[in-house]
Amino acid sequence: MKAKGLRSRHTFKSYKTEAKKLLIWMMEKRLNLNSLNVEHVHDFYNHLGNPPKHWIRPAKAKSGEKLADTQLLRAAVSNESICFSRTVLIGLCRYLIAAGYMRLNPFELSHKPTVVVHADQDRFLSVEAWDYLWMFILGMANRTPLEKKHADRVRWVFALFYHTGLRCEEVANGRMSDFVRRDITWQLKVVGKGSKARLVTINSMLLAELMRFRKICGLPVYPLPAESFPLVPRQSYKGGVGVSPRTIQAIITEVGQRAAASCLDPQIAEQVAAMSAHWLRHTNATHRLMVGASLETTQDELGHADPRTTRIYAKTSSVARKDDAEKLAELHKGKEQQP
Length: 339
What we know:
The protein is mainly alpha-helical. 52% of the residues lie in helices and 5% in strands. It has two domains: 3-109, DNA polymerase, domain 1; 127-318, Orthogonal Bundle (hpI Integrase, Chain A), CATH 1.10.443.
């Protein structure tokens, strides 16, 4: 099965990962695609949720250590992740049925694992957490040339994610030539999910960070149309070679862990320790809407096809919620309270 038969490279990668888990499990059970039934599918879900030891990969592989084919999981898979696997495998089986490789789709008939549905999107940094994180980044050690390069690149990565709300792959695939000026406004050309192009507006703070980082990289102050320099280069800043989404995520995770270890506020420390690239995307959307940006412009900037996706980031302010909660307490103030 070739990637061109699927909707995108991201979709193909998901199909490949989930198919590998299923096929290796089927080999252990001596099953084939056309013998697979609903009971087998439920056994597979249970297997993901309670994997045997030989399916778990070490937290950190030793140098030169070769992993077994079955070492596909880092830990037991959550119900939310099993639901994702189910969705992917339903689509994969539909594809195989259409191609004549399967007769029935047992995943479509399987029960969906129970997942707690949160009404709000809570994977974002509070304003206080972002302020702490940014100050931590500005204060990162830069005593040696290597430390300075690392600190400068970290600063640019976090500024780019926070002020644009880009996805990790969008950042990894981006080039400086994707910055374009329309009258007095700078925008960034982005190709997102489903190969859909959009323009993301660059605010004054990010423009200042862009100019600063370009100067550090030895580039002209403003981006040029023919530049091939990546949005996030390797730490050497040479050769115009970009980094992978995995490297970007590793940078964000490493900084989050260091920032959390230095934080005296446990609430903020918990947020920055759990932070990922997608958290920063959520943070961008949430903070935009908090300060009064419209749902329409936020939807366009993030590249959401459905406005309901953008709406989950719209938060009422904490002050307003506290004031309204206190109204109930006011109703009973002055009355004798039972011990």
